[in-house]
Amino acid sequence: SQQGEEDPQALSIQEGENATMNCSYKTSINNLQWYRQNSGRGLVHLILIRSNEREKHSGRLRVTLDTSKKSSSLLITASRAADTASYFCATDARSNFGNEKLTFGTGTRLTIIP
Amino acid sequence: EAGVTQFPSHSVIEKGQTVTLRCDPISGHDNLYWYRRVMGKEIKFLLHFVKESKQDESGMPNNRFLAERTGGTYSTLKVQPAELEDSGVYFCASSPGLLSGANVLTFGAGSRLTVL
C-alpha cells in the first residue's frame, strides 16, 4: 500500500516566491526524509526530520512534521530556477522484516518560472 | 567518492525479450535497494540486499524478475520475459545502513526501460 502521498501533484510558481509541498503517510514512522529528483537524474537527499522533531531548517528549506496528523510539509523559500524538480517524501516505517527500507510517494512536480 | 552507477541508462526492447540492468553501489555500502517508477506514479520498492543476501524482496512483481548481488558488490536485475507493463525507470540506491538512527539512501540516475 502507498505510504507517502505528496500534495499537490504539480506546482508552478514565479522565481523568488515560496513553494510549499505536503506529504501524508499512513503508518508510524521513525524518520521522514525529503528527496529531490532533477529530470533524468537520481534522487538526492535533501533533509531528514525525526519523529520527535516538529521543525527543521537547512538553508532555504524548512520541514515540519505533525505525527498526530501523519503529515509533513516542505517549504522552499526564495525559489530559484534550479529548484525546478520533483520532490518526494520518504518514510522508514519498519517492515515485517525489520529492515530499514524507505517508502516513497508519488512526488510533487515543482516548476519555477523565471 | 564515486556515486551509485547504473547501466544502461536507457533500454528499448520488444515484449518477450530479456533485459539485465546493472547497479554498482558506493563502495562499502552493505545495503542495496532496487526501486521502480512507472509513468509518473509512486516510486515503488522492489527489493533490498544486505551484502549478498536478499533482506526483503516483497516488492518484486512476479517471478519474471530476478535480482542478484554476487559477492555483495554490484547487483543485477533481470527481467525475463519482459512485458509492456514493465516499462518504467528502475532506480538503484545504496546506503551504509543506519547512521544515528536514520537510513539515508544515495541513488543512481536510473535505468529507463521501454518495452514495445
Can you put this structure into words, describing what you see?
The complex is a heterodimer of chains A (114) and B (116). Chain A has strands at 5-7, 10-14, 19-24, 31-37, 43-50, 55-58, 61-66, 71-76, 85-91, 103-104, 108-113. Chain A is mainly β and 114 residues long. In chain A, strands 2, 4, 5, 9, 10 and 11 form a 6-stranded mixed sheet that branches. In chain A, a hairpin with a 4-residue loop joins β7 (61-66) and β8 (71-76). Chain A starts with a strand and ends with a strand. The mean pLDDT of chain A is 90. Chain B has 116 residues and is mainly β. Chain B contains no helices and 11 strands. Chain B has strands spanning 5-7, 10-13, 19-24, 31-37, 43-50, 53-56, 65-68, 75-79, 88-95, 106-107, 111-115. In chain B, strands 2, 4, 5, 6, 9, 10 and 11 form a 7-stranded mixed sheet that branches. Chain B has a 4-stranded antiparallel sheet with strand order 1-3-8-7, with no helix packed on it. Chain B is globular. The model of chain B has no long low-confidence stretch (mean pLDDT 93). Classes of the chains: A mainly beta (114), B mainly beta (116). The A-B interface holds A 2, 4, 30-31, 33, 35, 40-45, 48, 50, 88, 90, 92, 95, 97, 99-107 and B 3-4, 31, 33, 35, 40-45, 48, 50, 55-56, 58, 91, 93, 95, 97-98, 101-110.
